[in-house]
Hints:
By secondary structure, the chain is of the alpha+beta class. The protein is built from three helices and three strands; from the N terminus they run βααββα.
Amino acid sequence: MTSEKKPLDLIWEVEEIAKLIGRTERQTFHLLSSGQLPAKKVGGRWVAERSKLIAFFMDDVA
Length: 62
């Protein structure tokens, strides 16, 4: 059996992550740097997987 993996839908930079979660860049940077969002810093840039961010917020709602 072969398992098909979906390609990662990565969001780079605080600005783009902020747009997705509906927060200001400043608020988003605070959430990222304090480890409150599922993201990583790669080479000085923040990166997050779209599906993990959405799942993170959906878990908070449930």
